[in-house]
Write a structure and sequence with these properties.
This protein is mainly α. It contains 27 helices and nine strands.
Length: 727
């Protein structure tokens, strides 16, 4: 409130005068020698007084009125010359303001023979990178004991930019001192306007300023100017892109705490997972509210009723997906049907992919390859046990890695017709590239939500994405011409695309469409399945009675004299309930893949304008005590009794692991079969224990997916006869 703000900043001004020293600020300001981060003492007061009265006085500022006016007029002339064509207002505003700031700092130097004609641009780029680094979440500031790890790379990156900035400033200062000395020797007095650098150098001896302080003050001016530009850009966007005032309906409640430009992004910077954070906001604001993700608006819904209204009544309105740099660069310019825009191309690709996946699921070769892959992977565990058991009955196995290798090879066999063995060059290249692909696809990129930043490529994400996309493209090109493999899915897609897709309309080649579709299937079929299997086995080991009951069910139908086959899966009713309960407690994508409204609509009586992102908090719905009895307990039996009619297809909107509506996961049935076959096979073949004899750590990593914070390493021992481990 204003009263409390006054109490803090007026009555207690002296007490709260310090700013927090962060890792980044300590490095870039030479230990706090600037005004912003210096401690409140006599040195700071001296520096402030000198800076305000000697540098930022009215005389100096008025002297640069003509410079500011000239830059603005140049900008207006530039925009006028481009009437009728798209204009990047964000970039133009940024460059105009930045040119003013740069010239005010070192105008005379730049006009009197700078060694490097690009010095102003270099200075601007370095300052922009420093602003970006300042904006990063840095756990080292919160937990100083782990600062030496430099987990986010803030210290490394800031030291690099500090070195670059130091070189630029020292070059400017040294050359200016030489220039001033020469003019002094020649008896030439300074004429015209003094820039800030000239003023500070003249004050250096009189006011006891050192070079580090001068550099820090120049940096304060640069960063202050650039940060101001971001506010201007946000204001311009707000003026020109206001929500449609003509939509009938109430105005959505927006969660409190939004900051200019970044919106509510700062709320996601802590250790709390996004779905839990939004769940707590739902407790405060209700089942439907909005937040700002950067300059973009997002609708958050947290009840089955609201989810149903979004995905049935407004199914077409929310059929879009948000555009992002990752989907553009890694998805062949939005040819990835799972993440691409809604429209004729998407409808064609859904039809083609469904036509291929359904018969492929029933294909005998597919069934045989999947079962064979599971058996081979189980044999790998058995060989590890034989090689390492010694006198011990049980051997430690990294089940996280085992699940990853198994599911990756199952999907690759489906797409490419082959598995990659350890050490195989093409396979290792693909695994590294696809790992980067998955990481970059889920990486937060500032330019996706803050207008006008992309051209700066803060963080180098665009460069990384282009490199990864090229590596994957080269590998997949080889797959397309490799006739030695039984490429059931890839071959089918090629023929379907040639038959159905109008390439002259969409401007995409057959090869590009097939490669984008294969990557979409891979991305959708690996991580979610791996995460669910990891959580399922963790829950079973933490609940030994449930594990024993599941093992008994498998034995009742399979016995101990043969292996689990696909034909057995329909009999494992309790195991199916375990998989459902796992996905209820730990949905792999707790907020589902975001939707975007492609037209204005009404949800719950509230007006939702076109271009609004939709976040459905599936985790909140699936753990709501108003919907589920004992929601946080692992109780598979609920799906055999009170909730036996609830399935994972999202029709009741109580259980949404695969989404619902026209953009729900196409590979749901394949994923469920993979999970059931894998889980049934491993609990039939092995007993499991936690090495520490303590409950398994079920901590979730903060992020947009439900990633287990620690690896699942378990002690395993065979539980069937030795010949059943042979492939």
């Amino acid at each position: 409130t204003p009263d409390l703000a006054k109490a803090v900043l007026h009555d207690q001004d002296e007490i709260v005068a310090n700013h927090q020293q962060t890792v980044a600020s300590t490095i870039i300001t030479y230990g706090g020698q600037d005004i912003l981060f210096s401690k409140n003492n006599s040195s700071l007061r001296h520096l402030q007084k000198t800076f305000v009265f000697e540098v930022l006085n009215n005389k100096n500022l008025e002297a640069y009125d003509s410079l500011r006016r000239d830059e603005v007029r140049k900008t207006i002339k530039n925009v006028f010359s481009r009437v009728g064509t798209p204009v990047n207002i964000s970039e133009i505003s940024f460059l105009t303001s930045s040119n003013v700031v740069t010239k005010v700092i070192c105008k005379n130097f730049l006009e009197n023979g700078a060694k490097d004609s690009h010095l102003g641009a270099e200075l601007l780029m370095v300052a922009a990178k420093i602003v970006e680094i300042f904006g990063r979440v840095n756990f080292s500031n919160i937990f100083p004991s782990i600062a030496w790890f430099d987990l986010q790379g803030v210290e490394r990156d800031m030291k690099k930019e500090q070195k670059n900035l130091d070189q630029i400033f020292k070059s400017i200062i040294v050359d200016r001192i030489k220039y001033n000395s020469k003019r002094s020797e020649d008896g030439v007095e300074h004429q015209g306007k003094k820039d800030f650098l000239q003023t500070l150098l003249e004050l250096k001896d009189a006011k006891s300023l050192n070079i580090d302080q001068i550099e820090s003050l120049l940096l304060d001016i640069m960063i202050g100017g650039i940060a101001c530009v971001f506010f201007i850009v946000a204001w311009i966007r707000n003026v020109f892109k206001r929500p449609n005032k003509g939509i009938l309906g109430k105005t959505l409640t927006e969660a409190a705490g939004a900051w200019p430009i970044i919106g509510h992004l700062h709320l996601f910077a802590g250790s709390q997972a996004p779905h839990k954070l939004l769940g707590s906001l739902a407790d405060k604001y209700g089942p439907i509210f909005s937040i700002k993700i950067g300059v973009l608006r997002a609708l958050v819904v947290s009840t089955p009723e609201m989810a149903k209204e979004c995905l049935t009544t407004n199914d077409i309105a929310f059929a879009g997906r948000p555009k992002s740099m990752a989907v553009e660069l890694l998805g062949y310019n939005y040819a990835n049907f799972a993440l691409g825009s809604y429209g004729p191309f998407w409808r064609d690709m859904i039809k083609i992919t469904a036509l291929e996946l359904v018969p492929y699921r029933r294909h005998e070769t597919r069934s045989h390859l999947r079962v064979l892959e599971v058996k081979s992977s189980i044999a790998d565990i058995y060989r590890t046990w034989i090689a390492n058991k010694g006198s011990s009955v049980m051997v430690k196995v990294d089940m996280t890695q085992w699940f990853h290798n198994l599911i990756v090879n199952i999907i690759l066999k489906m797409i490419y017709g082959n598995r990659f063995s350890s050490g195989e060059q093409d396979g290792e290249q693909f695994k590294k590239a696809i790992r980067r692909f998955a990481e970059l696809l889920s990486t937060f990129v500032p330019s996706d939500v803050i207008t006008g930043l992309r051209w700066l490529d803060l963080g180098g994400y665009e460069k990384k994405m282009k490199k990864t996309a090229k590596e994957l493209d080269v590998i997949m090109d080889r797959w397309l011409v490799d006739e030695s493999k039984d490429q059931v899915l890839m071959t089918g897609l090629l023929s379907r695309v040639k038959e159905y897709v109008k390439q002259d309309v969409y401007g995409l080649s057959t090869d590009v469409i097939v490669k984008a579709t294969c990557l979409a299937i891979y991305a959708g079929g690996t991580d979610a399945t791996i995460l669910t299997l990891t959580w399922a086995l963790s829950l079973l080991v933490n609940n030994p009675l449930v594990l024993r009951k599941a093992q008994q069910e498998v034995e009742d139908h399979v016995g101990r004299e043969r292996k689990v086959e696909e034909a057995d899966l329909k009999n494992f009713v309790y195991l199916q309930a375990i998989v459902k309960e796992t996905m209820r407690l730990y949905p792999s994508v707790p907020l589902l893949i975001p939707h975007e409204s492609i037209e204005d609509c009404i949800v719950g009586g509230y007006a939702v304008p076109k271009g609004t992102q939709l976040l459905i908090n599936a985790w909140k719905i699936q753990n709501d005590p108003k919907i589920w009895a004992n929601p946080f307990d692992f109780q598979p039996e609920r799906f055999l009794t009170s909730d036996k009619n609830v399935d994972v297809k999202g029709q009741q909107f109580k259980l949404l692991p695969f989404g619902s509506g026209r953009r729900m996961c196409l590979g749901m049935s394949l994923a469920l079969e993979d999970m059931l076959l894998t889980l049934a096979s491993i609990i039939h073949a092995f007993d499991f224990l936690n090495p520490s004899n303590e409950p398994i750590d079920m901590t979730v990593s903060p992020g947009w997916t439900n990633l287990k914070a620690t690896r699942l390493e378990l002690l395993v021992a065979p539980r069937v006869q030795a010949d059943l481990y042979k492939v």
